[in-house]
């Protein structure tokens, strides 16, 4: 396989278009899973959350890993490039092999799982293909301000995301499916602390890679889970009369 810059441009543009489609579909009406799923826990047409999240996210880890294995001779020089590919796989290792096994979420709709998997194949291919076959970085990219600041943002975002996922999980005992008011960590300031972390993470990745595919993915993430944070916030305000009034939806002190 070789690098086709036109393919990268086309796939990144399509990802940007999907982001706008996602935004237009879900700005008013949230994606129908989790607390926005109206019919509770009907087993038909749903898969247990553990299984669903594992299957859905697996391609985001496997596809870049396969592309890496198929690349002969291996090309991930310089160090900056190798590190960037590892960051992407690191996140999806967590999301595929760790997050699903601890989740206490409700069963996930099969239809969304199918589209989610397609999305993960698409994005895993785009990010992996670009980093493994196309990206060119100077040998001193690791000391470039874009790489270092992007890496710091990525790590900060990932830390917030994982910590917030943990706080949400601890709200329930095994087998419980009720919703409670999240407390602690960044939830003190925003209802969508896990989403805020994830958005910071992927913008950090985009800055560190300084690439069109990564910026397209960060934009998609913003359009996908930004509105979802807003819908979560409205849900909490509607459901809990004692919900902290100073808490924002997504961005601490701002929105
Ligand atoms: N999965 C990313 N669009 C999505 C699946 C659906 O990873 O075709 C986007 C992802 C996909 C979507 C994905 C892309 C767009 C798709 C869509 C389906 C249709 C759509 C493909 C791939 C589509 C077009 C046409 C435009 C292409 O019971 P429960 O489950 O609610 O329990 C929850 C629990 N919890 C609480 N427990 C007690 N009390 C409370 N108050 C609670 N609040 C929540 O915590 C869950 O077990 C858990 C987390 O819940 P929630 O709702 O906060 O997060 P969730 O949305 O489930 O995300 C989980 C993590 C989170 O860290 C988030 O940052 C990350 O995954 N994520 C999620 C979505 C997308 C994404 C990251 C990204 O874009 N980077």
From TrEMBL:
Can you tell me where the transmembrane regions are? Answer: 108-133, 145-164, 202-225
Domain 3-oxo-5-alpha-steroid 4-dehydrogenase C-terminal, by residue range, is 107-255
Q: Which cell locations does it reside in? A: Endoplasmic reticulum membrane; Microsome membrane
What GO biological process terms are annotated to this protein in UniProt? androgen biosynthetic process; cell differentiation; sex differentiation
- Enzyme Commission code(s) on record: 1.3.1.22
Primary localization class, coarse? endoplasmic reticulum
Q: Which keywords does the record carry?
A: Differentiation, Endoplasmic reticulum, Lipid metabolism, Membrane, Microsome, NADP, Oxidoreductase, Sexual differentiation, Signal, Transmembrane, Transmembrane helix
Gene Ontology terms, MF aspect: 3-oxo-5-alpha-steroid 4-dehydrogenase (NADP+) activity
- Reaction(s) catalyzed by this protein? 17beta-hydroxy-5alpha-androstan-3-one + NADP(+) = testosterone + NADPH + H(+); 5alpha-pregnane-3,20-dione + NADP(+) = progesterone + NADPH + H(+); a 3-oxo-5alpha-steroid + NADP(+) = a 3-oxo-Delta(4)-steroid + NADPH + H(+)
**The organism sits in which domain of life?**
Eukaryota
Query: Which interval of the chain is the signal sequence?
Result: 1-19
Report membrane topology: Multi-pass membrane protein
Q: What class of enzyme is it?
A: oxidoreductase
Q: Name one GO cellular component term.
A: endoplasmic reticulum membrane
Record-stated family: Belongs to the steroid 5-alpha reductase family.
State what this protein does. Converts testosterone (T) into 5-alpha-dihydrotestosterone (DHT) and progesterone or corticosterone into their corresponding 5-alpha-3-oxosteroids. It plays a central role in sexual differentiation and androgen physiology.
Q: What is this protein called?
A: 3-oxo-5alpha-steroid 4-dehydrogenase (NADP(+))
Could you tell me which species this protein originates from? Junco hyemalis
